[in-house]
Design goal:
452 residues, alpha/beta, Rossmann fold, Helicase, Ruva Protein, domain 3, 4 domains, 18 helices, globular
Length: 452
Amino acid sequence: MYIVHADADSGSQEVLRRARDRVAPQADLIAVDTLRSALCVLGSTRVACVVLDMALRDACGGDIIRRLRAAQPGLPLLVWSSRRQSSDASDSNVAWLPQDQTAVDAVALALGHTLGRVHLVDAVDGDAVAEGPEVTRFGGADFIAGTTRMRDVLTLIEAAAESDVPVLLEGETGTGKEILARAVHARSARCQAPIVVQNCGALAEHLLESELFGHVRGAFTGAERDRPGLFIEAGSGTVFLDEIGEAPPAVQARLLRILQHREVKPVGSDRPVRVAARIVAATNRPLADEVMAGRFRADLYYRLAVLPIHVPALRERATDVPRLARHFLARCAATERRGEVALADDTVRMLAAYHWPGNVRELEHEVHRLVLTLPPGAMIRPEHLAPRIRQQSAPLPSEPLDEMLARVEMALIRERLGQFPTKTDAARSLGITREGLYAKLRRLGMSTSGAA
């Protein structure tokens, strides 16, 4: 997701960045200072919204909005301005931000609502629905693959299962990478041999080396007997290395030797042991970035990424949310013997509007909680959902945006006035002058009396 920031003055960049970090940390900011540059970006990149000032280096006033509208008619615009432009006052895709550019809370609120509407539109229009059944039995597990993105992932999983090359699964935490790794193993010719799993970030370096590669008796304190290690225990099966990006340098070097020479030396031994297991690895952050930052070996990365598979975040396959919710609901109700439970239409819409930072795992746990806390046969309504889901998925208030922003601004000022002994200190915490604070108090109808 990309947000274009069109402003000739970079002073608002930090405010927008902080607001972005609160409501959509995954979004990328593209800064431009001319209308021409903004139009070029719109022509080559899918943009969620444009945050702009009414005075750019090559254009100003309502002409900016009109030309952006001509380029993309439905594009949401957030405009730094003290007053609405009369010609755009009725445009529901234009939101007006406070001119002083210091109210991070107000900007975050407006940005969150705007991106929330974009998310809902994408859920309906932008995420292509694939043909075929919604639930696919694949490698011993049920997969909800109602979108082309997930269908493409399953196609790659099938290709991986038919090959012996290393597989690298990249995707955020909770997207189901381990389930997909097990599907690769279950669909492969190695399915009769075991699949063993190790989280590379869960153990200290020496313990991880011993767990993966084994050790001989006396190799270190407490090594009272030989231990084969997971690569030997797996035989001709699969070793799934979760969070491979967390592997220490010494472990990375040993893994490289396994991939190059198909052999491993147990800790404390000089005799290599031949191994036949296949490696499937997973990471919750792009390994290419880790290589560029010097935290991961480039040679190991290129050997692991023979067949890279990107597992999309749940927000990237939003039309699957209702399908997943109903699937988990039926499964959890049967497991807990709670009887039939249903989702109200408003609840489904609220679930689809939420950004799911914990991805499929978070959705499954939320559904399980609902099944356990509601009586059998209940209808799950919006008020039953966790507060974090209700708050972020809340519909846009009917009050005008400028009134809503004024209310948020008033609440923030009251909070700061209560926290600091003087108005000067409160103003400084808001990033404005004392005179600016007095002007705001007068504009909002608040009292200017009290400590200076």
